[in-house]
Amino acid sequence: MTAVQIQAQNINWQIDGKTIVEDVSFTVAKNETFGIVGPNGAGKTSLLKCLYQEYPLSSGQVLLDGMPLDLFDRREVAQKIAVVSQLHEAVFNLTVLDIVNMGLIPYKTLFARNTDQDRQLIAQALTTVDLLDKQHQVFNTLSGGEQQRCLIARAIVQRPQVLIMDEPTNHLDVFYQHQILSMVKKLGLTLIMTIHDLNLAAQYCDRLLLLSGGQVLACDTPDIVLQASRLKEVFHLDCLVDRNPLTEKVRVTYAMIDEEANHE
Ligand SMILES: Nc1ncnc2c1ncn2[C@@H]1O[C@H](COP(=O)(O)OP(=O)(O)OP(=O)(O)O)[C@@H](O)[C@H]1O
C-alpha cells in the first residue's frame, strides 16, 4: 500500500467571523500529484496556506508522515516542505542566483559558505528550469514566467519531500506550462498544487480535490471529479467532457457563456 505523506483532518479556517475553509479532509500519498481545483474565491489558496502553516487552523490538523505538522520545528518543516506561492513577493534587488540560493537556508547555519556541492546543486536547478544564462539578472526584471521558474529552482534546491505550488502555471506560455508540470512531476516528490486549468489538471494530476465555497465537493481521480454536470454546477458553464485524443486524458471543452447564469 502507498504511504500517506500528507493528511488533512477536518481543517477549518475562519477569518473575520467568516469560514473560508470548512471541514476539509483528504490524504495525499507519497509521490502523488494532487491538484486542488475550483472557482475564484473557493478557498484554494487559503487551504494551501493552512497546509503549510501560514494560516493557523481554527480547528483540525495536518499530519506529515503521520505526525502533526505543528510538532515539527520550523527548520525541519522547511527541509521537508517547499512552497512556490503566487508571485507577489517584493524581492528588490536580489538576483536569480540570490533567490535560488535561499533554497539552501534550511540546511545552513548563519554565515555558512556555499560548498562546491551547493553550487553544483544550484547550477543543476537553474539548468532544469532553463535559467542558467539569467542567473545574474535581477529577479524583478524577469518576465512572469521566468520568475515562476526561478521560484521553482529555489524549491528544487530546498530538496523537499513535499512541494506545494499555488497556481504554478500562472504567467507561463503553453510550452512552459507543460514543461514545468512535467518537470516537477519528474522530481518524484509529493506534489500538491492549485490549478485553474482543468485540462492541465486532468493531464498531470493523479487525483483532484474540487473545492467550492470552502467545502470539498469531490476528491478522486480526474475521470471521476471532472464530470460535466458537476462542472456546470460549480462554474455555471455548459461543457463537454471527453478524452484528449493525443493524451487519452480527460478533456473539458466549454460552451459559450450562458448570459442568464449568475456566476458567483
Ligand atoms: N487573509 C485573509 N483575510 C480575509 N479574507 C481572506 C484572507 N485570505 C483569503 N480570504 C478570503 O477567502 C476567500 C477565498 O480566498 P482564496 O484566495 O483562498 O480563494 P481561491 O480559491 O484561491 O481564489 P482564486 O482562484 O481567485 O485565487 C476569498 O473570499 C478571500 O477574500
Order of strands, main sheet, comes to 6-7-8-3-9-10
Compute the average pLDDT: 91
Helical residues, percent: 25-40%
Q: Could you state the order of secondary-structure elements as H and E?
A: EEEHEEHEHHHEHEHEEHHEE
Taken from the alpha-carbon principal axes, the silhouette is globular
Number of strands: 12
Protein name: ABC cobalamin uptake system ATPase BtuD
Organism: Thalassotalea insulae
Keywords: ATP-binding, Nucleotide-binding
InterPro entries: AAA+_ATPase, ABC_transporter-like_ATP-bd, P-loop_NTPase
Describe the structure.
This protein is α/β, with parallel strands linked by helices and 264 residues long. Helix content is 30%, strand content 28%. It has helices at residues 44-51, 74-80, 96-101, 116-128, 144-157, 174-186, 198-204, 222-225, 228-235; strands at 4-15, 18-29, 33-37, 59-64, 67-68, 81-84, 162-166, 190-194, 207-212, 215-220, 239-243, 250-254. The chain has a 6-stranded mixed sheet, with helices on both faces. Strands 2-1-4-5 form a 4-stranded antiparallel sheet, covered by helices on one side. The longest helix has 14 residues, at 144-157. The N and C termini lie far apart (41 Å). 36% of the residues are buried. Residues 15-16, 20, 38, 40-46 line the site of adenosine-5'-triphosphate (ATP). It comes from Thalassotalea insulae. Pfam families: ABC_tran. Keywords: ATP-binding, Nucleotide-binding. This is ABC cobalamin uptake system ATPase BtuD.
